Amino acid sequence: MPPFRTGTTIAVLVLVLAFYAALIGIKGVALLASGVLAGQLLGAALLVMPVLGLYVVWREIEFGRRTAVLARDLDAEGGLPVDDLPRRPSGRPDRRAAQGMFERMRGEAEASPEDWRSWFRLALAYDAAGDRTRARAAARHAIALRG
């Protein structure tokens, strides 16, 4: 997705979430004022949940922004791995081929544990292999190493 379109989509989704949070907040305040204990507890929960939701969305957007910076910088250095893996009909990389790429990238990260570049390439390899949890963990480690 082109950057402008992605940014626009994110902005619209954040605005919708903020609108939803405001509406839920209004209902929460009304329940707090109800004078009934159950209503007050529900009202407090309705005030906390949108704040928590907005925080989680902010963290995800920040993670995406920081990984995009790493990808841009690594690409400018010519360090991004070439994406020439065979694809399944769904468009996802073939897992067996991705496994080979993963083994190479894991070896690089083990050889250079303090290099954010090797950890970011490992994150890309985990993602290609279909392991999103470890991909995100490796990307977070690359972000921490980069500072």
Low-confidence segments: none
Radius of gyration, whole Å: 21 Å
Structural class: mainly alpha
Instruction: Give the integer mean of the pLDDT values.
Output: 89
Largest sheet: none
What is the succession of H and E elements? Answer: HHHHH
What is the general shape?
elongated
Helix content: over 70%
What's the total number of strands?
0
> Which range does the strand content fall in?
under 5%
Helix segment count?
Answer: 5
| C-alpha termini separation | 27 Å
Protein architecture, described:
The chain is mainly α. It is 78% helix and 0% strand. It is built from five helices and no strands. It has helices at 3-32, 37-76, 95-111, 116-128, 132-146. Helix 4 (116-128) packs antiparallel against helix 5. The radius of gyration is 21 Å and the shape is elongated. It starts with a helix and ends with a helix.
What is the topological layout?
Blueprint: H1 3-32, H2 37-76, H3 95-111, H4 116-128, H5 132-146
Helix pairs in contact: 1-2, 2-5, 3-4, 4-5
Outline of the structure:
The protein has 147 residues and is mainly α. 78% of the residues lie in helices and 0% in strands.
Question: How would you describe this structure in keywords?
Answer:
about 150 residues, 5 helices, about 0% strand
